[in-house]
Design a protein that fits this description.
The protein is of the alpha+beta class and 287 residues long. It has helices spanning 8-20, 51-71, 128-137, 152-174, 209-216, 257-264, and strands at 22-33, 37-48, 79-81, 85-97, 100-121, 141-148, 180-191, 201-202, 225-226, 230-244.
C-alpha cells in the first residue's frame, strides 16, 4: 500500500499552477427588503431667556406626543422618554467704569430639549404614515430613523446565492468564444460589505399625470410619508479554474468521512526485523 503525503510547498506550487489558468471574478448582488420594524426619535425643543417659560413649552409638546402614541395604541414599552436637558447660552457684556472697561459673562437664554424614542413594529407599520404626520403636528422634530428586519439571516443567505450566480454568469460571458471551459472554483471569498443606513422617503401630493399614475398603481395619495427599504448587499470573489474546451467537466463528488480520514492518514512502514510468519504445516497422509 502506497500513501503520498503532500507538503505545504508542493500544495502552494499546485495552487500557483491552477492560478495561471484561472479567471478571477467578483459576483455582486443586492436584496431589497421591506422592513417590519422602525425606530425613530422625536425631539421637543424651545429657546427663551426665561427658564420658567421654556420648560413648560417643551413638556407640553412631550405630552402631545404621548397622546398621539396612545391614540395609535403603541405599547408603553415602545415609547421611552429621555431626560430633560437644559443648556444655558452665555454671552459677554462689556461695560466701562471708574476702573476702565470690563467684560462680564452672563446667561442670555436657555435652550431646553427632551426626546422620545418610538418603535413601530408588526401591524403598527401600516400606521407609519398617519402616525408620523400627527407626531409632526405636535411641533416636534424627527432626529433620525432606523429600519430593521427580523429575517436578516434569510435575506443575506439569498443575497449570497445570487452573488455566486452572478459570478458564474460573468465568468461564462467573459470566456465565450475562447477555447476554454469553466471549471470548478478554486476558492470563494466573501468581501466585507457595510450595511447602508436606509432613509424614509417623503412623497408630496401628486397632481396631473403623476396623480393618475399613482391611482392606477393603487398608491394611497394621503400617505405622505412612506417607510424606506433595507438594502442587503453581498460581494463574493470567486477564482474559477479554466479547462481546455475538449476536456469534459466533472463536478467533484463530496468525500465521505471515512475517505477523508483515509486520505489524511500517514501509513508507517512495517519494521523489517520482525520474523516472517511461519508457513502452514500440511499433514502428510498415512501410508
Amino acid at each position: 500500500f502506497l500513501c503520498t503525503v503532500m507538503s505545504t510547498s508542493e500544495s502552494g506550487q499546485i495552487f500557483l499552477e491552477l492560478k495561471k489558468r484561472s479567471i478571477d471574478i467578483t459576483g455582486e448582488s443586492e436584496v431589497i427588503v421591506v422592513p417590519d420594524r422602525v425606530c425613530f426619535t422625536l425631539r421637543a425643543e424651545h429657546l427663551d431667556n426665561d427658564l420658567t417659560k421654556t420648560t413648560p413649552v417643551v413638556e407640553e409638546i412631550i405630552s402631545k406626543i404621548m397622546g398621539v402614541a396612545r391614540k395609535f395604541h403603541i405599547p408603553a414599552r415602545c415609547v421611552q422618554t429621555d431626560n430633560l436637558r437644559i443648556q444655558p447660552q452665555i454671552e459677554e457684556v462689556s461695560s466701562s467704569g471708574f476702573m476702565g472697561r470690563t467684560r462680564t459673562k452672563r446667561v442670555s437664554k436657555f435652550f431646553v430639549t427632551k426626546s422620545v424614542n418610538v418603535i413601530l413594529e408588526g401591524e403598527l407599520m401600516a400606521q407609519y404614515s398617519n402616525a408620523m404626520q400627527e407626531f409632526l403636528q405636535t411641533g416636534c422634530l424627527v432626529d433620525g430613523e432606523r429600519y430593521e428586519t427580523s429575517h436578516l439571516f434569510e435575506h443575506r443567505t439569498r443575497a449570497r446565492q445570487m452573488a455566486i450566480q452572478n459570478a458564474v454568469a460573468k465568468a461564462t460571458a467573459l470566456i465565450e468564444g475562447l477555447p476554454v471551459t469553466l471549471g470548478a472554483p478554486i476558492y470563494i471569498q466573501e468581501m466585507p460589505a457595510p450595511q447602508p443606513a436606509p432613509q424614509a422617503r417623503f412623497r408630496p401630493r401628486q397632481t396631473g399625470f403623476k396623480a393618475m399614475l399613482s391611482s392606477s398603481l393603487d398608491i394611497d395619495d394621503e400617505s405622505i410619508f412612506v417607510p424606506g427599504t433595507i438594502s442587503v448587499p453581498v460581494d463574493v470573489r470567486v477564482l474559477f479554474e479554466l479547462l481546455p474546451a475538449d476536456a469534459p467537466f466533472h463536478a467533484p463528488i463530496p468525500a465521505t468521512r471515512e475517505e477523508e480520514i483515509a486520505e489524511s492518514a500517514v501509513m508507517l512502514p512495517v519494521p523489517t526485523n520482525q520474523p516472517a510468519p511461519a508457513a502452514p504445516v500440511v499433514p502428510t497422509p498415512a501410508q
